[in-house]
Structures are given as structure tokens and as C-alpha cells.
Design goal:
alpha/beta, 8-stranded parallel sheet, 5-stranded antiparallel sheet, globular, binds 1-deoxynojirimycin
Length: 558
């Protein structure tokens, strides 16, 4: 079945652990999400994507799955899931599940069996290799620091894990593995879910012979991404998955693809519907990474506007008519966008959040809103190591500060504050009561200290809030074909203060102009007083040519 609703939707991402607790254990859950459906319906989103809710030891917050067909008891029961899905469908909303099949948890029964011996039914489900000269089979490093291989004495072999050692990689070369994956996908689709967000799906096809990866200067291990991303059989596997499963249902898919280029993405999202609908690309969110590759993304560099414009515009232009973009600033792996790409200074935060939202939501593609983005939630501004929960932070600290001594603790703490994933994982801020309305007991993770000010209740009480502005952005997209389908042209690529572009569709022109600075600027792209202003983040009007701090204006010109 080929359907295009994925192009017309706005998607809201829920990090279940941190969204809404309903059973007084400090952990968000499915019934909590269910209670908040009216809020999401009022916002106007069409689809919800839930981060993994399956049984998991939570070494990587659910991205280590121990059983694909059962619900993590922290989140509720299968009956709670069915009730949530039913309520969503009755309310006209669709649901995307997170499909994590590059790896499982080491607690999954497939791995528990696989590691026992070389001749059991699951022995070839993972990537096992003999030691080479008594050590790891190649130089690959894990995304979460340390080697990508762990030795298992029972087999006398190493297994591959691109992420934590508790996340062994599945062996996609084995047709039995692929069949098991397709079966579990059908399990959820037969329940009625409307599609999948596919975790690091471009890492599933490993290069033949598993050669060494490029090793940054001074690094102990090789950097796997350039070698493993978009592997030799990826298109084949995705086509098979499409043929065997996806093509039989009316679904939406988005594949998370670190390292992918627009040229890669055109193959995966080609509009004939034989692979996926969209990819999550990383080029704009990887800007400002550290020059010292051993520290990866961790730095406190500010992103320069021309490089940001170039990264986003490249995808807009190259995929037009050939594939389809996903649009995002935030997710559970990224710091909060308003802090990162604009400012969370209280004087400007609300305007800056609206400006960023506008700049992204007026582009071609399907927008994803991450929980809390719609009220302008900010980074947590953590200063101490024990304030972090994420294994990524703790592993890197150990490697870079304690073991290899490549950076001092104070500097690395600044980088963590800027880029840690925990910035996105603090509980949702519903009101100013003691646990922010997220729970009535101490939450599993700390609240952002600014919740008494930045919260949903305050946003709903203020007609000029980020919330109502996002609602308007969503409505405008639903109502205007030029926003959904128009082509894209960047204006003044080198302008380091203003992000301006136009979109054209069937004789209509959309002009989007956003001031990314705290200064007053003037820009003339031919907008006149006669043009219809679709949206603007200031209440009092000024000249159409003038842009106050973080001001954004969108014109519709017929
Ligand atoms: C990407 C997910 O978004 C991230 O949270 C996770 O740690 C890795 N994939 C590994 O599954």
C-alpha cells in the first residue's frame, strides 16, 4: 500500500519515562500518556512517536530490549497499551513505535542462548568473531567509549556491540534474524500501530571482512561510523523488510541514520515507497562537534548561522521531488534547541523558541516536536558529574579524564552541560507544584530548576506563549499546501544574522525571514505591506523590513 499521510502529518515525540507518571512511582507510563491525550489533541499533532516501551534492563533507557513483544512493567501492561492505542485512534491520532533492531539487550533470550555455545539455534544471531593474536578482532570503538567487542569465555569469542556491551549487535547477514525481526514488526502492526521510527537502521549491514576503522590521532579505538554506516546490503535489507512487512500495511516509517548524506537518503526515501518514508539525518545537529575527534560531539562551540543554513538547505534542495525530509531540532539524544541554536536568556527565550520553531516548520518535510519543545523547555545547565544519568557521559568521563587524561574535568563538564542527552530527559514540566505535575513522588530523574516558571499550566494561561504559537504553526501547515509541498530556495547563504528562504508552489510564494541575533536588523527581500503576514512572534507591529531580537516573519505572496 502506498499512502502519503506521512507528508501531511506533524509528529510529537514522547519520552515515556519523563512524560507523565500516573501510578506514583516517579516514572512516566502509558496511562500517564493517555491522560495527556487531550493536551496533545489541542496542540494539533497528528502522530505520536514513543521511545521504546518494551521490557528492558534500561542500561540505555530502553534501547536495550530484552523482549520485543512485552511492555516494560514500569510503563504498564499490554492492556494499558491497547487502551492507549484505542483512545488515540478514536481521537484521530496515529502511533509510531520505536524499532530497535540493530542490537538487542544482552538479557534477550536470543543472546542468552547465543553466548552459550557455537552450536545452538541462536549461535549465529549475533556478530561473533575469534580473537586475533589474543585480542579484539579489529580496532572498532563503541559509540559509548571503549572497544566495540567483548569477550565471552564460554564461546572463546568476541561479540560486536556498536553501543554498550549490554547491547550486542544482531547479525543481519543471517536470514533467520531478519525473519524474527519481520515477525516482531508484524506483531505490532497487527495490533494496529501505524509505523516505526527505526533506531540506527543504517548501521545494520556491516562491511564484509570487518576491516579496521579510521583511527583519530591519539585515539585508542577506530571511529566506526564512516565505515559501518550505509553498509553494502542496507538497501537490500530495507527493500526486503518493505516487501515482507511494510508494504502490507498502511504505515509511516522514519529511519534514524547517523552519517547519511542526502544522496544516501534519496535511495532510502525514494518516493516509489520501496524502502522507507523518511530518515533522521544528523548533519545539522552534528555541527559544532569537537575538533578533537576523541571527544566526538562534546564541545561548547557555538554553531555559526551560515553553516547551519547550509546544512539544512542542502537537504531541502537535494531531496525536493526525490525523497522526503524529516524536520527536527530536538529529540531525546539532543540538547534543547532553544539553548543551543538561539538563547535561553529569560529576556528572549520565548521569542527565540518561536523563531526556531518557525524556521523549521516552514520547511518542506514532516516536522517532529519533542516533548517540552512546545513550551520552550531549556537545557538543564548541570555542573556536576553525579547530576548526569546517561551512560554516554559517565563512560566518556572515565575514558577521557580518568584513563587517558586527554582533557581536564572542568572543561569536559562544560561540554557535557552543552551537549549531554540528559538535557532532553528531565521530566516534562506541567505545573509549578513540587514535582512539576509530572509525578507526586520524587521523579526517576531530576527536574530542570526552571520548572516553576516554564511549564504547561503557565503556557496555557498566556495567549502569547510558545505553546499557542506552535499550535498556530501546526495549523498553518495543515491549511497551506505551499508549506507542505513548496520547493525551497535559501536567500543570502552568507548572512550570519538572518536565516531567510522562500518556498514556491502553484503560483504561491512563502517568504520566511528569521533574525537569529539579539540585535535589531533590517532586511529587504521584496516584502511589502500588501503581503499577507501568516505569522510573526511579536505582538506590536513594526515595518515589514525591520526585525527585532529573534523576530521572525512569514509572508504569503500570491
Ligand atoms: C539511537 C537512540 O536514539 C539512542 O538513544 C540510543 O542510545 C542509540 N541509538 C542506541 O540504540
Amino acid at each position: 500500500m502506498s499512502s502519503t499521510w506521512f507528508k501531511d502529518s506533524v509528529i510529537y515525540q514522547i519520552y515515556p519515562m519523563s512524560f507523565q507518571d500516573s501510578n506514583h512511582d516517579g516514572i512516566g507510563d502509558l496511562n500517564g500518556i493517555r491522560q495527556r491525550l487531550p493536551y496533545l489533541k489541542d496542540l494539533g499533532v497528528d502522530v505520536l512517536w514513543l521511545n521504546p516501551i518494551y521490557k528492558s534492563p534500561n542500561v540505555d533507557n530502553g534501547y536495550d530490549i530484552a523482549d520485543y513483544e512485552s511492555i516494560n512493567p514500569d510503563y504498564g501492561t499490554m492492556a494499558d497499551f491497547d487502551a492507549l492505542l484505542r483512545d488515540m485512534h478514536e481521537g484521530g491520532m496515529k502511533l509510531l513505535m520505536d524499532l530497535v533492531v540493530n542490537h538487542t539487550s544482552d538479557q534477550h533470550k536470543w543472546f542468552q542462548e547465543s553466548k552459550k555455545s557455537k552450536d545452538n539455534p541462536y549461535s549465529d544471531f549475533y556478530v561473533w568473531r575469534d580473537p586475533v593474536d589474543g585480542h579484539e578482532p579489529n580496532n572498532w570503538g563503541s559509540y559509548f567509549s571503549g572497544p566495540a567487542w567483548t569477550y565471552v569465555p564460554e564461546r572463546g569469542q568476541y561479540y560486536l556491540h556498536l553501543f554498550a556491551k549490554e547491547q550486542p549487535d544482531l547479525n543481519w547477514e543471517n536470514p533467520e534474524v531478519r525473519k524474527h525481526v519481520y515477525d516482531l514488526m508484524k506483531f505490532w502492526l497487527d495490533k494496529g500501530v501505524d509505523g516505526f521510527r527505526m533506531d540506527v537502521i543504517n548501521l545494520i549491514s556491516k562491511p564484509a571482512g570487518l576491516p579496521d576503522a579510521p583511527q583519530p590521532d591519539g585515539a585508542e579505538y577506530g571511529n566506526v561510523e564512516p565505515l559501518v554506516a550505509d553498509g553494502p546490503r542496507l538497501n537490500e535489507f530495507l527493500r526486503e523488510m518493505n516487501r515482507e512487512v511494510l508494504s502490507k500495511y498502511d504505515v509511516m516509517t522514519v529511519g534514524e541514520m547517523p552519517g547519511s548524506t542526502p544522496e544516501d537518503a534519496i535511495q532510502y526515501t525514494n518516493l516509489d515507497g520501496t524502502e522507507l518514508n523518511m530518515v533522521f539525518q544528523f548533519q545539522h545537529v552534528n555541527l559544532g562537534s569537537n575538533d578533537d575527534k576523541r571527544l566526538g560531539k562534546f564541545s561548547d562551540k557555538r554553531i555559526q548561522l551560515p553553516e547551519l543554513k547550509e546544512a539544512l538547505s542542502r537537504w531541502q534542495v537535494k531531496l525536493d521531488g526525490k525523497g522526503w525530509n524529516s524536520l527536527y531540532w530536538n529529540n531525546h539524544d539532543q540538547p534543547r534547541a532553544v539553548s543551543r541554536f538561539a538563547t535561553d536568556d529569560p529576556e528572549y527565550r520565548v521569542r527565540a523558541a518561536k523563531m526556531l520553531g518557525t524556521t523549521l516548520h516552514m520547511m518542506q518535510g514532516t516536522p517532529f516536536i519533542y516533548e517540552g519543545e512546545e513550551i520552550g523547555m531549556t537545557n538543564a545547565h548541570l555542573t556536576k558529574l553525579d547530576e548526569y544519568e546517561d551512560l554516554e557521559v559517565h563512560n566518556l568521563y572515565k575514558q577521557a579524564v580518568e584513563d587517558e587524561k586527554i582533557i581536564d574535568s572542568e572543561t569536559l563538564m562544560k561540554y557535557f552541560a552543552a551537549r549531554s542527552r540528559d538535557n532532553a530527559r528531565t521530566p516534562m514540566q506541567w505545573n509549578d507544584t513540587v514535582y512539576a505535575g509530572f509525578s507526586d513522588v520524587k521523579p526517576w530523574y531530576r527536574l530542570n530548576a526552571n520548572y516553576p516558571d516554564i511549564n504547561v499550566e503557565n503556557a496555557l494561561a498566556d495567549k502569547n506563549s510558545v505553546y499557542y504559537y506552535y499550535r498556530e504553526l501546526i495549523k498553518l501547515r495543515h491549511e497551506n499546501e505551499v508549506i507542505r509541498y513548496g520547493d525551497y530556495k535559501l536567500l543570502d547563504a552568507e548572512d550570519a544574522e538572518v536565516f531567510a528562504y522562500e518556498r514556491n508552489y502553484k503560483g504561491q510564494k512563502l517568504l520566511v525571514i528569521s533574525n537569529f541575533t539579539a540585535k535589531d536588523v533590517v532586511r529587504d527581500y521584496g516584502q511589502t505591506d500588501d503581503a499577507k503576514m501568516l505569522i510573526n512572534n511579536y505582538q506590536d507591529k513594526n515595518s515589514v523590513l525591520e526585525f527585532r531580537p529573534y523576530e521572525t516573519k512569514v509572508f504569503l505572496i500570491k
